[in-house]
Specification:
Number of domains: 3
Structural class: mainly alpha
Radius of gyration: 29 Å
Order of helices and strands: HHHHHHHHHHHHHHHHEEHHHHHH
Number of helices: 22
Strand order of the largest sheet: 1-2
Shape: elongated
Strand content: under 5%
Largest sheet: 2 strands, antiparallel
Distance between the termini: 68 Å
Helix content: 40-55%
Length: 486
């Protein structure tokens, strides 16, 4: 058997990515011979020593590795859009070998001894099962990752272009990587996702951040990594040892945060926030015991916990969250406000106040469409007199800001609360920061604006969105002006 014959047969068998000809063992045998050359001194991440055959298979590694057609069909195989039902059917079919073993070429690809798991860089408990469909997805994902590494390192081997690694639309390929990870939460797929995010940027980052399953699996794998550490673990830094799954999750999280859309990626983890922060608190405790002085990826991962805590405005509970998470949360909450001038912050607060859901302003009440409007500022409402009294004298007393809201709202033309109920709705003033300042500075002193900011920003409902919506609002105003001018 020659490598040329084998490649031709394998490529033909994958021409229809939804209907591969052979079982998963056939393709795993083929891919175990692909020479994995990467720029750093990792051993072959798939199989160190290929399983030995009872047949004399003469496979020339360089020919296999140089075949761009093989990479094309494998990329299409993993990136082709499939429903979960299609994926389950494919798994069942490819794990049941129905190959024609009378063909010597095909039979030769089955005549191998198998270990339970493939030798790879991943620690015990994270290695894929070799002769299963999980093993095939893992080895294809590893090939995808290494192909991107080869291209980015400017090696002369395949792929010749980065695009060969992501066949089809970026959105579909990114969605399928997340979907495969949800079925098989294995590290090769996580490496592939991190590499795709780094190499392709926004075209794949957007579908990654829209995934309903990726945040769950990131948090789950992170917890598995922490749970797998010995209780008394305090060893030296071993980047590809037992701490590697934790580090890989942090690297992936960092890549997913590299998108400038005006909204913090902290909201990506909102649904899984309790488990994430609990796990990151454990990571911070482990990190404090470690022999290394500082690991950048771990530091960024722990800091992410502080950003999530700050963005979601969670309580400063030292019994629940690690001190490093709380310290970073305090620093982050302060820094997001420093960059805004008093007039800029006041404008954003007024916009946020106008866009809050139609509900009672009392922090202890969530009644929708309250009937009573504050007669002072005319821009907040309550469901009854009891709620209004509670908010007027509460921990964040409305009486401190009522006149300020009225003065700023009237000067800048912000709608009163009653306008929410009109059939035609209300029109938000299209003022940038300079125009807002010009509109209010004659009637509202700077000291009043600063006092208004200080009191209003303490309200969790305001602080949650005032900074994140800044870029979106600026872009929206520019779009409206462009359309008006046109």
């Amino acid at each position: 058997m020659t490598s040329t014959d084998l490649l031709a047969q394998a490529i033909r068998s994958l021409e229809d990515p939804k209907n591969p000809t052979f079982c998963c063992r056939y393709y795993i045998c083929l891919l175990s011979h692909v020479e994995q050359e990467i720029s750093i001194t990792w051993e072959n991440p798939i199989i160190r020593v290929a399983p030995y055959a009872r047949d004399n298979l003469r496979l020339k590694l360089s020919t296999v590795a140089d075949s761009t057609s093989l990479l094309d069909v494998l990329s299409a195989f993993i990136a082709t859009n499939r429903s979960r039902e299609d994926m389950a059917t494919l798994t069942h079919r490819m794990e049941r070998c129905e190959c024609d073993r009378t063909d010597r070429l095909i039979d030769g690809m089955h005549a191998w001894d198998w270990n339970l798991t493939a030798y790879c860089r991943d620690p015990e408990g994270f290695r894929t099962r070799t002769c299963t469909f999980e093993g095939l997805i893992g080895i294809v994902a590893e090939l995808f990752y290494n192909a991107l590494q080869l291209h980015d390192c400017r090696r002369i081997r395949w792929p010749r272009t980065r695009r060969q690694c992501l066949v089809g639309s970026d959105e579909s390929a990114a969605t399928m990587l997340c979907r495969w990870l949800d079925i098989y939460p294995i590290l090769p797929l996580l490496r592939a996702i991190a590499a795709a995010a780094s190499s392709f940027g926004k075209p794949v980052l957007v579908p990654f951040l829209l995934s309903a399953h990726l945040p769950k699996n990131l948090v789950t794998i992170l917890k598995r990594g922490v749970d797998s550490l010995p209780a008394d673990f305090a060893g030296g830094f071993d980047p590809f040892g037992v701490v590697y799954p934790i580090t890989l999750v942090f690297i992936t999280m960092k890549e997913l945060s590299n998108i400038d859309d005006g909204v913090s990626s902290a909201y990506f983890y909102r649904e899984y926030c309790p488990l994430l922060l609990d796990t990151l608190s454990r990571v911070a405790e482990i990190d404090a015991k470690m022999a290394w002085a500082l690991d950048f990826n771990w530091e960024q991962g722990i800091n992410l916990g502080g950003i999530v805590h700050a963005k979601l405005v969670l309580p400063f509970d030292e019994t629940k969250y690690h001190r490093r998470i709380l310290d970073w949360s305090k620093r982050h909450r302060t820094s997001i406000l420093i960059v805004q001038t008093p007039y800029q912050l006041a404008r954003n607060i007024m916009l946020t106040l106008a866009e809050l859901p139609l509900q009672c302003m009392s922090a202890e009440c969530v009644t929708a469409y309250p009937p009573s409007i504050c007669s002072g500022c005319k821009r907040v409402a309550y469901c009854n007199a009891e709620c209004q009294t509670r908010d007027w004298n509460g921990p964040l007393p409305h009486k401190k800001v009522c006149k300020h809201i009225r003065a700023l709202g009237d000067a800048a033309g912000f709608p009163v609360y009653a306008d929410h109920y009109t059939d035609c709705g209300f029109i938000m003033p299209q003022l940038d920061v300079d125009e807002f300042q010009v509109a209010v500075q004659d009637g509202v002193p700077l000291s009043t604006v600063s006092a208004f900011n200080k009191n209003m920003i303490e309200d969790d409902r305001i602080r949650k969105v005032v900074n994140d919506m800044l870029v979106i609002r600026a872009c929206w105003i520019e779009d409206v002006r462009a359309l008006t001018a046109y």
